[in-house]
């Protein structure tokens, strides 16, 4: 197959999990190298903001997702133009993104918006560990549509993936950062850029293999992603405001809840829809499962772009507010 044109796209399913594992592992190594044990001490310094941020991540975001999925299930097929399995994929994707911790990009956006960076880093790090327990639980609770066929959420596999490809590289990265001295920033940049390059390859592979068929989901698929992203962002802002947090803390919490770890979501997709299970399914059942997987993939990749726009808008608003005061 290697000598045939577009062999990568034709055999993409064989490389998807390996690419996802390398991508998230590299990203976590880079992030870990930028952290120290002192960063965890920030929990005690910014405990109030941390408590609100954890509440928003673990309870508020999934609650908003549950509402979005319930409303999504009420849209009739003739109005959405989607098949039931396509709609199931969208619902599963929303559930998966609701269960994701914040990504390292949230720390950069918080810094650019002059928010509480220490709080942002603390939330990103701690929620990364906490998701080891919460992710499979949230995904199971939120999925109103069961994945078609005999395929079910494998909680053990998801936990194993998070431990092996998220927690272990993060700890190893911290160890590397401790001995790398002044070179740890270079190491972080190299690892993060390498991870982004692999992500770009995954996106190209997904599109080339027909996983991300934009016309198939039309305006309503993108609308579902945008509405979900905006709602969790605003819910986080309201939660932080009601808790009496200052503007820097509100920005950190809202961006942390909005800008999810898309890299982890891409990896977990391979756990939720393993190639072996797809190969075992035959005929119409395989087509239905693939359609649900493709819908989920669409949401994950679309959310990655939408959440960055939403986070950047919060940064711009914050900087404009600061400029108006000066």
What does this entry look like structurally?
With 326 residues, the protein is mainly alpha-helical. The chain has a single domain (13-316), classed as Up-down Bundle (Na+/H+ antiporter like fold), CATH 1.20.1530. The protein is 83% helix and 0% strand. It has 15 helices and no strands. The chain has helices at 7-10, 12-33, 37-45, 47-74, 77-80, 84-99, 105-112, 117-142, 155-180, 184-208, 214-242, 247-258, 262-272, 275-280, 283-325. The chain is globular.
H-E string? HHHHHHHHHHHHHHH
| Outline type | globular
CATH topology: Na+/H+ antiporter like fold
- Tell me the fraction of residues in β-strands, as a range: under 5%
User: Based on the structure given, which CATH architecture is correct?
Assistant: Up-down Bundle
The counted number of beta strands is 0
Domain module count: 1
Keywords:
15 helices, 326 residues, Na+/H+ antiporter like fold, 0% strand, mainly alpha
Report a brief summary of the structure.
With 326 residues, the chain is an all-alpha fold. It contains 15 helices and no strands. The longest helix has 43 residues.
């Amino acid at each position: 197959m290697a000598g045939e044109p577009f062999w990568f796209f034709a055999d993409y399913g064989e490389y998807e999990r390996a690419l996802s594992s390398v991508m998230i592992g590299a990203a976590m190594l880079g992030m870990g190298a930028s952290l120290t044990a002192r960063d965890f001490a920030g929990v005690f310094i910014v405990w109030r903001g941390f408590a609100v941020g954890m509440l928003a991540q673990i309870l508020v975001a999934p609650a908003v997702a549950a509402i979005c999925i319930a409303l999504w299930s009420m849209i009739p097929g003739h109005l959405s133009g989607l098949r039931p399995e396509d709609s199931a994929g969208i619902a599963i994707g929303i559930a998966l993104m609701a269960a994701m911790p914040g990504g390292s990009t949230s720390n950069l956006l918080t810094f650019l918006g002059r928010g509480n960076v220490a709080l942002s880093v603390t939330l990103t790090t701690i929620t990364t560990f906490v998701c080891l327990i919460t992710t499979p639980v949230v995904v199971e609770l939120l999925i109103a549509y069961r994945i078609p066929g005999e395929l079910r959420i494998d909680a053990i596999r998801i936990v194993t993936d998070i431990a092996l490809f998220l927690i272990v590289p993060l700890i190893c990265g911290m160890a590397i950062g401790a001995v790398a001295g002044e070179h740890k920033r270079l190491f972080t940049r190299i690892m993060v850029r390498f991870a982004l390059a692999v992500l770009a390859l995954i996106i190209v592979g997904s599109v080339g293999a027909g996983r991300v068929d934009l016309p198939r989901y039309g305006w309503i698929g993108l609308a579902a992603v945008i509405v979900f992203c905006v709602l969790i962002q605003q819910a986080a802002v309201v939660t932080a405001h009601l808790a009496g947090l200052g503007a820097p803390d509100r920005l950190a919490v809202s961006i942390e809840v909005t800008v999810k770890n898309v890299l982890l979501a891409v990896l977990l997709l391979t756990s939720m829809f393993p190639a072996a299970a797809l190969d075992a399914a035959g005929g119409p059942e395989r087509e239905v499962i693939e359609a649900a997987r493709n819908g989920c993939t669409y949401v994950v990749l679309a959310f990655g772009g939408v959440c960055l726009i939403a986070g950047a808008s919060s940064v711009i608003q914050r900087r404009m507010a600061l400029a108006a005061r000066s």
